[in-house]
């Protein structure tokens, strides 16, 4: 069996078109134009690419955006000053602090200061708490993107056995919660596997939907995949590649060539979950703008 390849770019384009229409309707009804402010600390080259793409995508959808670029030596207090200013600015609908942050900055300290209504990453304690409670407001963009792929591809999740590899606050934990909550595109039986999991291959083979968010190229090999399973690859790791003009390429967690011979459907890297992260961010910015204006 050769897997169907899920086109994340096409699904993201469709989500982005929906958001653009919603922005136009919102503005025609007298709403304020949604605005995304991104805080980027340091020189991580991949982060700069992702943040640039987030700004462009918000503008393509009819929103405005700005990026606050801070040096790698910026103090936590300086970052918090920016967060406080953006919280207080009525022109700002959404605030995003790109991860990873340099070591002198505690990501939890920064997240906890963002106004939950403007927290378009869904990473504040308030939004994570709502997710645990089963009543999410802003859900983190990458996990929301995975759920949207399953929804738009018509992949049933009711009662399905899902294995999520990875327990990060950005992806693994919120994704396990989203998929195990009650609801039409959820209600799955979710196992969260991680570096402490015994016999990871056997656990993964149980999955009808296998989602890898390990951030480790080659972590998922063909022997770990149940024949016909849906495989969602969240990993995006930059690896050196001398054959490329850029000197690098983006690698997922999944051994794509081998796994596509076993799986029923599979997301590629690039062109899978990555573009969905950006599309779902825009969905969150639109929700934030409406909530701030009392139009939600
Ligand atoms: N705060 N930090 C915060 N929120 C996030 O949602 C993120 N994430 C992750 C890293 N740090 C974050 C992202 O934005 C990962 N991530 C992300 C966003 C976009 C893409 C990949 C990861 C993406 O667009 N990937 C494209 C290729 C882009 C390229 O050319 O390098 C893809 O097709 O996969």
The major pleated sheet works out as: 6 strands, parallel
CATH architectural group of the largest domain = 3-Layer(aba) Sandwich
CATH class of the largest domain: Alpha Beta
Helix content: 25-40%
Which cofactors or ions or other ligands sit in this model? ligand L34
Number of strands: 11
Q: What's the number of helices?
A: 10
Rg computed from alpha carbons, rounded to a whole number of angstroms: 19 Å
Structural overview:
- By secondary structure, this protein is an alpha/beta fold.
- The chain folds into two domains: 29-133, Rossmann fold; 141-275, NAD(P)-binding Rossmann-like Domain (Rossmann fold, 3-Layer(aba) Sandwich).
- It has ten helices and eleven strands.
- It has helices at 8-28, 45-60, 76-88, 107-111, 125-133, 141-152, 172-180, 200-205, 256-259, 273-292; strands at residues 4-5, 35-41, 64-70, 94-97, 161-165, 189-193, 209-212, 230-233, 237-240, 248-251, 265-266.
- The strands form three sheets. The chain has a six-stranded parallel beta sheet with strand order 1-11-8-7-5-6. It has a three-stranded parallel beta sheet with strand order 3-2-4, with helices on both faces.
- It is globular and about 55 Å long.
- The model has no long low-confidence stretch (mean pLDDT 97).
Key traits:
single chain; 296 residues; alpha/beta; Rossmann fold; 6-stranded parallel beta sheet; 10 helices; 39% helix; globular; binds ligand L34
In short:
This protein is α/β, with parallel strands linked by helices and 296 residues long. The chain has 10 helices and 11 strands.
């Amino acid at each position: 069996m050769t897997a169907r390849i899920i086109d994340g770019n096409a699904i993201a384009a469709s989500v982005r078109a929906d958001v653009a229409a919603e922005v136009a309707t919102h503005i025609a009804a007298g709403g304020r134009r949604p605005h995304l402010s991104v805080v980027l600390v340091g020189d991580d080259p991949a982060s700069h690419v992702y943040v640039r793409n987030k700004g462009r995508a918000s503008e393509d959808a009819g929103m405005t955006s700005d990026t606050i670029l801070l040096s790698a030596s910026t103090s936590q207090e300086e970052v918090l000053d920016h967060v406080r200013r953006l919280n207080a600015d009525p022109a700002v609908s959404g605030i995003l602090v790109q991860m990873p942050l340099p070591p002198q900055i505690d990501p939890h300290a920064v997240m906890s200061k963002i106004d939950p209504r403007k927290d378009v990453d869904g990473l504040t304690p308030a939004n994570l708490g709502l997710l645990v409670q089963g009543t999410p407001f802003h859900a983190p963009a990458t996990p929301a993107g995975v759920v949207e792929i399953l929804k738009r591809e018509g992949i049933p999740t009711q009662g399905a056995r899902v294995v999520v590899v990875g327990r990060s606050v950005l992806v693994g934990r919120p994704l396990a919660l989203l998929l195990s909550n009650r609801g039409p595109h959820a209600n799955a039986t979710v196992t969260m596997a991680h570096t402490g999991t015994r016999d990871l291959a056997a656990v993964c083979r149980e999955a009808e939907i296998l989602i890898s968010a390990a951030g480790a190229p080659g972590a998922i090999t063909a022997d770990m995949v149940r024949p016909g399973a849906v495989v969602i690859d969240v990993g995006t790791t930059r690896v050196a590649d001398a054959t490329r003009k850029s000197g690098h390429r983006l690698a997922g967690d999944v051994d794509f060539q081998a796994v596509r011979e076993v799986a029923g459907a599979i997301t590629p890297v690039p062109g899978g979950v990555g573009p969905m992260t950006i599309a779902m961010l825009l969905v969150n910015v639109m929700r934030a703008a409406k909530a701030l204006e009392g139009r939600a």
